[in-house]
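Dear colleague,

Thank you for sharing your sequence with our group. We've completed the structure prediction you requested, and as agreed, I am returning the results in plain text so they can be pasted directly into your records. Please verify that the sequence below matches your submission; if there's any discrepancy, let me know and we will rerun it promptly.
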Amino acid sequence: MPQSASGKVVAIDHVQLAMPEGGEAEARRFYADLLGIPEVAKPPNLAARGGCWFEQAGLKVHLGVEREFLPARKAHPAFLVDDLSALISRLQAAGIPTTGDEPLAGFLRRYVSDPFGNRIELMQPAD
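Please find the predicted structure tokens below.
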């Protein structure tokens, strides 16, 4: 099928991760307090489902409640950060371990798990 100029994917609007029921306070501590992504109110018609949304310019992370929750241990979002060392220090001071991986040209990076076990990659462009 030939490609056309319209009808193609052009960007990601948001990433949705799953969380267990009742985990909103833990999500706020991790995503807002530690990662620095402000929480925004969910639309009223979706708020009754639980979960929470964290958004800032160019980044939207939505956490939705999944009754039979299993964390995403391989699939993951990769967040660009402005100071990986400072973020890692803040996470470690909060008792949250980080792990490395194989080098990736052009980036410094570490992995962390959110409070629910979802894998998150943190990346900073290398100078």
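Summary note from our side: The helical segments are 24-34, 44-47, 84-93.

Kind regards,
the structure core
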